[in-house]
Request: fold
Amino acid sequence: MTHSDSELAVIYDQRFKGRQNYRNRVWRILIDDFIQTYVPLEAAVLDIGCGYGEFINNVRCRAKFGMDLNPNTAKLLSADVQFLQQDCSTTWNLPEAPLDVVFTSNFFEHLPSKPALASTLKQAYCSLRPGGNLIAMGPNIKYLPGAYWDFWDHYLPLTATSLKEGLKIHGFEMIRCVDRFLPYTMAHGVQYPIIFLKLYLKIPLAWRFLGKQFFLVAQKPKAGSDSAKDCAQTIHHPRAMP
Reply:
């Protein structure tokens, strides 16, 4: 990875200081009004690059896992979240039973290269049960040619189209692809009333004008395309899932 654990802690502490309560309120609305549709209540869910835990702490599901390199993350996750402090492009230290959902938001752009993303997608594919979903959100550089680079730790430029192609190359089938979804960032700027977000999510036409982030849902095929040999060498299973 590009930054040390201590550097990551400093970067995110400075970037989101004083905004955590607002971000949690925003994520509760995003989950309740939109994302929870793709996350069954009985699901086992892993959040890659889980950061301060806004998604994994608030989503409703059976088993929760959060992965991040930032050592401060462990202190911010709920007691029901199992924390994996590791590089997502290396072997995942997961329980034996497969995941139902792998989620990530505003994280893939922090990876240092396409090979690192490819390794991460392979880990996700092998960790998911057949029929399980990968849900990804992130800035679409197609609509952010300059502002995309305003963050010190942005490295990998992606569009919805390029990520969709990468997911297909790694065995996933597309369920939904929205190239314009949310506005760009909550790190800076005005903290708008939460009611505005609830209205925004109900008016997809507004996404076409204000959306700068993509939203994708990709599924591991239910049967017939899994490489058991490759996946057996990719995932480390230390113990059974609760």
